[in-house]
Records
---
Amino acid sequence: MFTPVQKFADVVTYNIFKIPQGSKLASAVNFFIFDTIKIFILLFLIVFVITFIRSFFSPEKTRDILSHKKQNVYIAHILAALLGIVTPFCSCSAVPLFIGFVEAGIPLGVTFSYLIAAPMVNEVALGLLYANFGLKIALIYVLSGEIIAIASGIVIGKLNLEKYVEDYVFKIKVGNVQIAEDKKTLNQRLNETFDFTVQLIRKVWVFVIVGIGIGAFLHGYIPTGALAKIAGKNNPFAVIFATALGIPLYSNAAGIIPLVSEFRRLGVSMGTSLSFMMSVTALSLPEMILLRRVLKPQLLGIFVAIVGCGIIATGYLFNLILG
């Protein structure tokens, strides 16, 4: 599929820029041109398809599905984690979604299953992981994210931590926002999907370019296997360090994937690479700052500790399975 893109990158690198083949600069420039075009093609296709599917699952509809009182609480956790994959979510929507879920009477643990799954199992990361590493890695990524979300939600629910939610949250009455989602025609959904896809790419393109730029430098100037000793599967602390390193960073998943690909080439094990990516997307500092508006420090700390431990456990599991 990307053979023409590789030929284009070769022509630009060697014939137009006239960079000698085999040099470090040529390797970095060729990688940057090829990956930039490839990532943006994949990004557009993946986001368009998933956004179209998500047009049938608004946040209000998700809240209504989860607020059914009669369903088993464990089924509610599973349902919440699954809906987290397909419903629209960004860091800025975490607070209003949390308030809306609490106002609808959804249990705190179930709410957290959704809030953890939504950023952790990122649709863009899923599509790009599939395109770059294959179906096996993509499925393990989804399963691990869902298991972490479900288990974390159940633990938080069992601990009865409602007292650590800011008091004003329980006093807010959001009301039921009725949106005529079901009445949209196919053309309306397609047009809205196209507009959203273009807007999203406009928002994330800087992250993508920066991620590919760092990846291109590593590709050209850092030899294969350079990180194998300090971040390979034989270092028992690599997963913990990678998870801690990813928390204060802020990047879109689309910008992290090129780095994950290069980490693998440099000798970083798959579980360690994915732990870094998951901590960036699920425990980013900006999202923690936003959640602090609705959660007291104790609950925010418990949330970070549980999800962080889940990501670390998943990293070790990946390294054990994939070697």
---
Amino acid sequence: MRVLLVDDEQELVVTLAERLSLRGIDADWAATAEEALEKVKDHTYDVAVLDVKIPRMSGLDLKRHIEKIQPGIRFIFMTGHGSERDFEIGAAEAGEEYYLVKPVKLELLIAKMNELMKTEGGQ
């Protein structure tokens, strides 16, 4: 499984990528939406884990841009400051079960990624 992590909290996203890599998941990361879009143009990912609140572009908008480049990629949203409205919008985009509130336990994130891989088109 190849995963792209996008979060403007660079220390968090780097640590998360390292921890996933230690568990055999090929994890790449980006700290901005622009970096994420460049990576998606150059690499193929199975799952993108997006922070909802990214500067200059929301995670929801980033999802739409990524889908244009890589149709079929699956998404998980993470947020640290989710309002009820944010939850409703994020849950509508990715499904309630794939909208996670930080801090997210690594085992839960891996379980959600594995669930997504079993969905239609997964490996």
---
Amino acid sequence: MTYPLVRFAQVDVGHLDLEGFSRATGLHPELVRRLVALGLIDAWTGFSGGLCFPPAQVAAVGRLQRLHAGLAVNYASLGLVTDLLDRIAELEAALRTHSRWTGGRSWT
């Protein structure tokens, strides 16, 4: 087992702060904080103490907004819906991979 002699500082490259993320998604910063508190989007505390968001979370918020507007799902239920949709996507991908390995025919 090896241990590094020098600890590298965590570099926040390509992240968005709360204001930038709010502008990019069109959401109020308080709603963004609420989504983070509900665990619907990922964020971390940056060096300045504010929330930082990876750019991929902008697409995640877009998905949440579509589900909220299209299915009239409240924000508390969005976690369950997104988890189920992710699980369906994983199962479909596993089925495609399994069919490719076994040479089976697709169900579609």
